[in-house]
Amino acid sequence: MPATPLAQPPATAPRSRSAAPRRLMTAAAATLVIAAATPATLAHAASPSASVSPTTVAPGGRVALNVEGCGTKVARVTSTAFNEVRLTPGNLEATNLFGSATVFSNALPGAHRVTFECGGPGGQSVTVSLQVTPGAARGGTGGSVGSMSTTQIAVGAALAVTALAGGVWVLRRRAAA
After folding, report:
1. Which of 9, 107, 133, 154 has the smallest number of CB atoms closer than 10 Å to its CB?
2. How many Cα neighbours within 13 Å face the side chain of 128?
């Protein structure tokens, strides 16, 4: 039987070095540069926004301070209601800066301007209002508990005794079974 020759692939022309891969790499590099620069440009284009929480506080109370859109890693906050505060990010990737302040115990009731300055004096600034109410801040439970009437105390005690008696009854019944 005659041997059949093995099929061989057709010969291909040697590849010529084209400029297409270089153009593709140049376009990809340019896209990465533009994408990396865009967030920084947008952050500086917008004015910063700031908040004070809570917006109403009694003398001696604490407030949380937050500013976003500074484009810097530090900001300064000034007010007639508290000492100067420096805000910093929580981590290197954070876009907002935050901190807290304690309102002076002798702060006058009324509206107080709170000025946030990005990067310190001379930087972009935004001002918000903080309302100081008359009276002192409550200590201990943070002001969350007011006065209670005798009726409320009696009802609470009755509920606690009922729950205790129910628990004893269930445990005795299980022990008997």
Report:
1. 9
2. 19
Enumerate residues 6+ apart whose C-beta is below 8 A from 122: none
The pLDDT of residue 151 is 83
What is residue 52's predicted lDDT score, i.e. its pLDDT? 93
Residues 78, 55 contacting (CB under 8 angstroms): no
Secondary element (H or E) of residue 129: strand 125-132
Q: Exposure pattern of 14-29 as b/e (b: 16+ CB <10 Å)?
A: eeeeeeeeeeeeeeee
The amino acid at residue 58 is A
Whole-model pTM: value is 0.52
Q: How many CB atoms lie within 10 A of CB 137?
A: 16
Which residues fall within 8 angstroms of residue 129, CB to CB, at 6 or more apart? 52, 55, 111, 112, 113, 114
Write the single-letter amino acid at 133: T
Q: What is the DSSP string of 42-77?
A: HHHHSPPEEEEESSEE-TT-EEEEEEE---SS-EEE
Q: CA angle, corner 41, sides to 37 and 44, nearest 5?
A: 145
| 10-residue stretch averages of pLDDT, the chain, 177 residues long | 58 57 56 49 63 92 90 89 89 82 92 89 87 72 60 83 85 81
Can you give the pLDDT at residue 96?
A: 86
User: 72 CB contacts (<8 Å, ≥6 apart)?
Assistant: 97, 118, 119, 123
